[in-house]
Design brief:
Layout lengths: L2 E7 L3 H12 L2 E6 L7 H5 L3 E2 L3 H4 L2 E4 L4 H10 L9 E4 L5 H13 L3 E4 L2 E2 L2 H5 L4 E5 L2 H6 L1 H7 L2 E6 L3 H29 L4 H8 L8 H11 L8 H17 L5 H18 L37
Parallel strand pairs: 1-2, 1-4, 2-3, 4-5, 5-6, 8-9
Antiparallel strand pairs: 7-8
Helix pairs in contact: 9-10, 9-11, 9-12, 9-13, 10-11, 12-13
Length: 306
C-alpha cells in the first residue's frame, strides 16, 4: 500500500537524492523545480509533477540554495499554503532569517521546520545523512516517518533557526577537516611521501576523520565528480562568518578556509565537488595560477534549482 503523498520543492543534487529515497519507500511524491526538465528522470521513476505542490500535499519538503530562494518560491505558491500544513525546509540558510520565516508561517497556522541535512547527495541517496531540526517539537515528532526514511539520524535542536545554527557549526568543522586533509596530502607529496601511503597512515592514526573516507580518494585521483559543490560550501562559509561577525567572534581558521575556497572558485572549480579544494594548495608561487578545472571531472549544472 502506498504511503501518503509528499511534495518535494527543489530538485538539485540533494532534492533529487531525497526524492529517490521517498519513491523507493513507497511514498507518492509530487515534485516541482524551476527547470521542469530536471524532474523528468524522477517522473520516469514514478514521481508526479505539481505546479503548486502545497495544494496537493499536506507535507512539503523544500531543498533550495538559500533562504532568499525559499522565500521567493513560497511567495509564488502563497495561495496554496494552508493551516495545518507542514513545510520541512532542508535548505542551509541564514539562522535569523530562517527563524523569522518560521514565525511568519506559524502566524498563518503553517507548521514549519528548518531541517538542514548534513552529508553529500551520495550519502543522502544511501540514507547515511543527518538532519538537524529546528521548530515546534510536536511538528518534528509528527514527521518522524519522513526523517526515518530520509536520514540515518535526526537531532531536534530547538526552536526555529536552531537547525540552521547547528548546521553552520557542523559545516565549519567539516569544512576545516576537508581543508586540513587536502593540505596534508599536498604536504606529503611536497616532502617526498607517497600521498596514497600518507592517506592510509592518516586513516589509522588519531588524525583520522570521516572526511578521509569520502574525499580522500577523490583528492588523490583528481576526481571532482560532484557530490556536493564547492561553491555551495563557500556560500555556507560566508554565512558562518557573517553570523560570527554579528556575535563579535573572530574565526581565523574559517576565514583562511574562505580564501582557499575563493581561490579554487576563481580557478573554475566552483561547480566541482568540494574535494577540489585541494587545487587551492597547488600554487607553487603567488604568480603561478591554479590549474584550470577539467570539464571531464566537473558537472555543468549548479545546485540552485532553476
Amino acid at each position: 500500500m502506498q504511503c501518503e503523498p509528499v511534495a518535494m520543492i527543489g530538485l538539485g543534487l540533494m532534492g533529487t537524492a531525497m526524492t529517490e529515497r521517498l519513491l523507493d519507500a513507497g511514498y507518492a511524491v509530487h515534485v516541482w523545480n524551476r527547470t521542469r526538465r530536471k524532474a523528468d528522470p524522477l517522473i520516469a521513476r514514478g514521481a508526479r509533477w505539481a505546479d503548486q505542490p502545497p495544494a496537493v500535499c499536506d507535507r512539503v519538503i523544500i531543498s533550495l540554495y538559500t533562504t532568499d530562494t525559499v522565500e521567493e518560491v513560497l511567495g509564488e505558491m502563497n495561495g496554496s499554503l494552508r493551516p495545518g500544513q507542514v513545510l520541512i525546509d532542508t535548505t542551509t540558510g541564514e539562522p535569523e532569517q530562517t527563524a523569522r520565516l518560521g514565525a511568519r508561517l506559524g502566524q498563518r497556522g503553517v507548521r514549519y521546520l528548518d531541517a538542514p541535512i548534513s552529508g553529500s547527495s551520495e550519502q543522502a541517496r544511501r540514507g547515511e545523512t543527518t538532519a538537524i531540526v529546528g521548530g515546534p517539537r510536536a511538528t518534528y515528532d509528527a514527521c518522524r516517518d519522513l526523517f526515518e526514511c530520509l536520514v540515518q539520524r535526526a537531532f531536534y535542536a530547538g526552536p526555529w533557526g536552531s537547525g540552521a545554527k547547528m548546521k553552520l557549526i557542523s559545516n565549519l568543522v567539516l569544512g576545516l577537516n576537508r581543508a586540513a586533509l587536502a593540505e596534508g596530502l599536498v604536504f606529503a607529496k611536497a616532502i617526498g611521501v607517497d600521498a596514497e601511503r600518507a592517506l592510509e597512515v592518516l586513516m589509522g592514526t588519531m588524525a583520522y576523520s570521516r572526511i578521509m573516507d569520502t574525499k580522500g580518494r577523490k583528492m588523490l585521483d583528481g576526481d571532482f565528480t560532484v557530490q556536493a559543490r564547492l561553491s555551495q560550501h563557500l556560500k555556507d562559509i560566508r554565512l558562518i562568518l557573517d553570523a560570527a561577525a554579528s556575535a563579535g567572534q573572530p574565526l581565523p581558521l574559517t576565514d583562511a578556509h574562505r580564501q582557499l575556497l575563493e581561490a579554487a572558485e576563481r580557478a573554475g572549480y566552483g561547480d566541482a565537488d568540494n574535494s577540489a579544494i585541494i587545487r587551492a594548495f597547488h600554487r607553487v608561487s603567488a604568480e603561478q595560477p591554479l590549474p584550470a578545472a577539467s570539464t571531464s571531472k566537473t558537472a555543468s549544472h549548479t545546485h540552485r534549482s532553476k
